Amino acid sequence: xxxxxxxxxxxxxxxxxxxxxxxxxxxxxxxxxxxxxxxxxxxxxxxxxxxxxxxxxxxxxxxxxxxxxxxxxxxxxxxxxxxxxxxxxxxxxxxxxxxxxxxxxxxxxxxxxxxxxxxxxxxxxxxxxxxxxxxxxxxxx
Length: 141
Description:
By secondary structure, the protein is mainly alpha-helical. Helices cover 72% and strands 0% of the residues. It has helices spanning 6-27, 33-38, 48-69, 81-97, 102-111, 115-138.
């Protein structure tokens, strides 16, 4: 399997960037997924329409790719369901303490030169590097 996909990665990055810019320019809102999803929990905000539309667009991407190319994106999750659930819980806790997720801080916050977002993104990246190092070289995974 070849994990090096510069064209599709660039296209995906451009689409994320365009979506973030359009959301900020059109509604003055940050495209932080954790905040968008979290705000759809009760009590529901008055401006929930754009939030639902944004998330629907994310979900619709795979079927649209299938219609355009005749194939679904390959998804490989090489961990068990319980480990995936623990990972989701840890990420959820981190999002709460970090006041946002990687998409909000890394894409939108850094583009606005937010010091808090730059610091958060540096912590995300350092933690990711440390986790990969420990799992691959210490734990032998």
